Amino acid sequence: MREITYREIEAKGALNRVQGMPFEWSLNPYVGCAHACSYCFARAYNARYRERDVGEAFDRNIEVRTNFVERLRRELQRRPEGSVAIGTATDPYQPIEGKYRLTRGCLEALADFPMPTSIITKGPLVVRDIELLQRLDAKADLTVYFSVPCVDEDIVRKTDPGTAPPRQRLRALRMLRDAGIDAAVLCMPVLPGITDSEESLNRAAKAASEAGATAFRHRPLKIDREIRDYYI
Ligand code: SF4
Questions:
Q1: Whose CA is nearest to atom 6 of ligand 1?
Q2: Full-model pTM
């Protein structure tokens, strides 16, 4: 078992302005991610902007922004323009969300002050919030993206060691689709020599389609210099 420590911190703000992305704002109630994917680009962010180790400091020392929802509510009252993506630098449904419910708090705030929203996750825990997602969906555009880089469970155990198996993610996707929520698959990143065969991509696309995904997108691996040695 991997031992993970959690530290409570105060966030200075919640909505983070982003540029060059298909959304204007991002929301990340946690810092670091227990899902521990070896290729995670957010490891490089951790090193570049927070001067932290790209390995255990990212995936075994998680920070919890306990005042995040309160900050978000204050910011949403000012009616920011644009759309928001939840979970761009950490998984909003990583296991500790079961205790702190910060992602749920963010969705409640967005349901009160709606803006177009997307969620990116590998966490089946998202099904806990189906009714809330329906409430938000009735007021604003909402898409839940499930990250499923491949469906080979032996590979996933090595590359995404802290995550739920792909079949559980796809089962969660099916539940969201059955509840009328737009849910798609991001088959990203495609790992050279590991998941880039036609067979691997076809299997992932077929599984996504069978689960009811409304879209299937893929993109090759991009390795920032900070995590080059770690990934190799
Ligand atoms: S689930 Fe996402 S944020 Fe978490 S380690 Fe994996 S790629 Fe990074």
A1: 37
A2: 0.96
